Amino acid sequence: MLYHLLFPMADQFPALNVFRYLTFRTGGAIITALIVGFMFGPVLINMLKNRQSAGQPIRVDGPEGHILTKAGTPTMGGFLILLALSIATLLWADLSNRYVWVALGVTIGYGVIGFLDDYLKVTQQDSRGLSGKLKLLLQVAIALVAAFVIADQLPPALTTTLAVPFLKNLLLDLGWLFFVFAALVMVGTSNAVNLTDGLDGLAIVPVMIAAGVFALIAYLAGNAVFSSYLQIHHVPGSGELAVFLGALMGGGLGFLWFNAPPAKIFMGDTGSLSLGAALGTTSVITKHELVLAIVGGLFVLETVSVIVQVVSFKLTGKRVFAMAPLHHHFEKKGWAESTIVIRFWIIASILALAGLSTLKLR
Predict the structure, then answer these.
(1) Which domain holds residue 103?
(2) Is residue 362 part of a domain?
(3) pLDDT tens sequence across 233-246
């Protein structure tokens, strides 16, 4: 909005020329989202506490300490992130850019699914929430629509292709399978972040780290000069996603202020499903889907731990981990919650650097 209102007046007021720069508008989006988070955080927490007398339902089969330390904490805090993200994006992004609307639409769409899931959990005081099949069906439907819109917007040479990290010239044309693959990336990332969200501050920091990496990737992929120099595939218009991802980072920081141990609020599925979908969508647009598996490697590890646990128990009747996802395994082993969270943040940072290395190692 500010871009459309102020940049056209740059001829009369040269100082307004700064609105043409993605870096300036990304910084503005980060600060705006952070301020919105600080402003509305206490209001939202008080409102949710009044409406959720029992707080988020705690898994009865989860770590014993959670029943004592986390009972009564309100959920749906992801709404704060979505509010900050939406306001900042609408203020600072170029709203004529289709990719911004796709990313924002998918994020809000998945947020609505998460909200319905959280609402049922709170009102019924049951940790199961929305039916798994219905939740998956809604996620797939939104992802497929987004995949078709993205494919329609991408340059013809990239429409249904998959780029392979470290190999500068290799593009695999997936044909109609691209839409299935793109939907799988969005749905998979969404649910992977959801599985990771189990301890205070555990999910939001790796999400912000990944968002920062993809903000840089989007900026570079959208710039013809930088993409040519780095020999990554140029996606015209994708640079505007840096503003969207900057808003996500700012909203995440605002939420973390209240989610830091001991958490005053949980993001719930409202936040985890939507944030994962945002990362998945931007990776599809920038043609860096496989890089997301590296940058978001922590989410992959958490998901794999659940898959391994389920398969092992069904085939052998034995569990590989004391409990899944992986962070609960370490809790069962006696690690302090803060130790697990900080060490997982370190792992996420290392994986982010590994993902960034793919931009140059070609």
Answers:
(1) 2-357
(2) no
(3) 999 999 999 999 99
